[in-house]
Amino acid sequence: MKRGTEKGEISYKCWNIRDYSKNKHRKVDDYPYGGGAGMVMTVDPIVSCYNHIKEAVFKKPKVIYLTPKGEKFTNEMAVELSKEDDLVLLCGHYEGIDQRAIDMIVDKEVSIGDYVLTGGELPALVLIDSISRHVKGVLGDDDSLDEESFSDGLLEYPHYTRPAEYEGLKVPEVLLSGNHKHINEYRKTESLKLTLERRPDILDISKLSKEDIKILEK
Ligand code: ADE
């Protein structure tokens, strides 16, 4: 990310919604209409902040609201969002934000997983990191954008590097063999087994070859 920033490929800026409150205590939340627990972020500071941001960019930025109610964030979504010139990541707090702010400015609601955090800041950082990887100039020559774990729908095989033996634990022999056909078969087998064990939900049987099915049946 530092590399991408220094090269001018990506940049970030933070805006504090409190700076857009018209209240002398910089208040940005209020009790929910209809009652119930918790506070709701008010519409005006959010929309005022957004209007300010909009003046600083060339065309309308895509606005993403981080919320556990949103569409689940995926690698595919990161690739799509990396094509946008500007993104605004709106972080909620408390019970949420006034629905009118969502209706007025939000393009997409995104969740980073089925758990509830105290605010959208950490999810925003997750998106920034994951999206930035897909922007040219962010990853270095030794980094890999080769996303085995997701691009072929399987979890990635295990990795090893030197030494070939550590405290009696050996690197699988096949990886030292130099036989790329065998290495690829080993890796495919490990990926298939791991996906079946940990993430059967993403294993798309219809996309597997006869050989793959045989491996899984073993
Ligand atoms: N805000 C609170 N929890 C969240 C989550 N899981 N994803 C996105 N935003 C959130």
From TrEMBL:
GO terms for biological process: methylation. It catalyses: guanosine(37) in tRNA + S-adenosyl-L-methionine = N(1)-methylguanosine(37) in tRNA + S-adenosyl-L-homocysteine + H(+). Its EC number is 2.1.1.228. InterPro entries: Alpha/beta_knot_MTases, tRNA_m1G_MeTrfase_C_sf, tRNA_m1G_MeTrfase_TrmD, tRNA_m1G_MTases_N, tRNA_MeTrfase_TRMD/TRM10. GO terms for molecular function: tRNA (guanine(37)-N1)-methyltransferase activity. Gene3D superfamilies: 3.40.1280.10, tRNA(m1g37)methyltransferase, domain 2. It comes from the Bacteria. It is found in: Cytoplasm. Pfam families: tRNA_m1G_MT (PF01746). S-adenosyl-L-methionine binds at G92, I112, G113, D114, Y115, V116, L117. It is an enzyme of class 2 (transferase). HAMAP family: TrmD. Specifically methylates guanosine-37 in various tRNAs. Belongs to the RNA methyltransferase TrmD family. This is tRNA (guanine-N(1)-)-methyltransferase. It comes from Acetoanaerobium pronyense. The gene is trmD.
